[in-house]
Task: inverse folding
């Protein structure tokens, strides 16, 4: 019997398991497939709270706090696992192709600036000094020098190694088929490899968290939102910075790939790449960087973002079920939010206090 059982071996489950173990708790982590084999390896790895969140509030605060944790988090994992995670916090640009887009972006720039964030408003010429491959069509945009990206697949690999070194019991290829309850308290799970018992069970099963809650007749709204995404070769296309526009984003990675994304479409749990999806992703980014027309295509893939009904993650206890918590629903930002999720969930498990989780508690969806 472990102190903690974490269900789901994506970026969230791995990060939470690692943090709990560092704090001296015994931890078992269960994954039905391969470590990080779902949304977490499908992601583009961008760390971009100022781009992602449309207004001030708890999501932006959470995202900014997580971004601040990243350099130390990445360094620690690199040291523990002896592997580079290719963190790059060298800035990104969000660009407008016309006056209407420019007005919208400018409004965002103003509140971000007033709130003290590190952002600059640049015209097209100034943006092309930051990123010479930007199209002449770009008229203006926001430069955010402190945001960036990471190689999420390397990060996942490092987390698995770090968990192993830390002593987390890692069970992959093990499907959770039921939640075990005794006298109104969750005591673990039933799996295809037999029962697993723990004092505290944390569901971190991504897009499947809603299904898992149904095992207790709880209607917590988590649904899969497919992202179709592609990679091209950076040979001959020496991009310097991440570029966002209304119809797509372009992320030059350190491994010689340029990752281009992504659709947001709902097809249940299907994660195939469709021709329509691929066409919209590729056509979406050409107006920003015309040089991409000549890029060599490498691969395309799909993943299922775990989306909640209000767009905010689910962090903390499941009311009415002692011993059970959720860590999920991170939608487009699970890579960004992994270090802060691990920290806040471990704080909660250690102290039983939920005051720093208030905006994200699962209770908001339950009567
Ligand atoms: C195309 C795309 C691009 C993205 N880009 C970014 C980005 O740039 N930046 C960013 O921050 N985020 C990005 N995201 C979002 C990010 O990938 C997700 O928010 C994050 O991966 C969610 O992590 P997770 O661990 O909750 O889910 P997952 O990675 O899906 O992990 C959940 C795990 O639970 C397991 N599981 C489910 N049911 C069971 C069961 N019954 N028994 C055992 N195991 C089970 C699954 O097999 C899975 O491995 C992107 C997502 C997509 C799809």
Result:
């Amino acid at each position: 019997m472990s102190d903690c059982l974490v269900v789901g071996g994506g970026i969230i489950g791995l990060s939470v398991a690692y943090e709990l173990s560092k704090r001296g708790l015994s931890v078992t982590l269960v994954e039905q497939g391969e470590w990080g084999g779902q949304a977490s390896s499908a992601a583009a790895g961008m760390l971009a709270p100022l781009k992602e969140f449309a207004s001030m509030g708890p999501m932006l605060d959470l995202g900014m706090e997580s971004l601040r944790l990243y350099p130390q988090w990445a360094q620690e994992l690199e040291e523990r696992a002896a592997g580079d995670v290719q963190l790059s916090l060298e800035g990104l640009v969000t660009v407008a192709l016309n006056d209407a887009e420019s007005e919208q972006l400018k409004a965002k720039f103003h509140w971000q600036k007033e709130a003290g964030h590190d952002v600059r408003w640049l015209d097209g010429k100034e943006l092309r000094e930051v990123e010479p491959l930007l199209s002449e069509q770009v008229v203006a945009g926001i430069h955010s020098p402190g945001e960036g990206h990471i190689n999420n697949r390397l990060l996942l690999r490092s987390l698995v190694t770090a968990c192993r070194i830390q002593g987390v019991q890692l069970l992959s290829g093990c499907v959770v088929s039921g939640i075990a309850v005794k006298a109104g308290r969750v005591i673990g799970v039933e799996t295809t490899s037999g029962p697993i018992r723990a004092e505290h069970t944390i569901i971190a099963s991504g897009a499947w968290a809603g299904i898992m809650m149904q095992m207790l007749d709880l209607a917590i709204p988590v649904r899969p939102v497919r992202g179709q995404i592609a990679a091209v070769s950076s040979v001959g296309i020496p991009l310097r910075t991440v570029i966002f526009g209304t119809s797509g984003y372009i992320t030059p990675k350190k491994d010689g790939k340029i990752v281009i994304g992504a659709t947001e479409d709902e097809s249940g749990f299907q994660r195939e790449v469709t021709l329509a999806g691929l066409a919209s992703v590729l056509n979406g980014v050409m107006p920003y960087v015309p040089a991409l027309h000549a890029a060599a295509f490498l691969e395309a893939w799909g993943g299922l973002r775990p989306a909640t009904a209000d767009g905010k993650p689910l962090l903390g206890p499941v009311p009415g079920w002692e011993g059970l918590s959720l860590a999920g629903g991170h939608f487009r930002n699970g890579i960004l939010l992994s270090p802060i999720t691990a920290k806040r969930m471990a704080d909660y498990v250690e102290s039983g206090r939920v005051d720093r989780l208030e905006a994200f508690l699962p209770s908001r969806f339950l009567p």
About this structure: The chain has two domains: 2-81+152-220+310-365, 92-147+224-308.
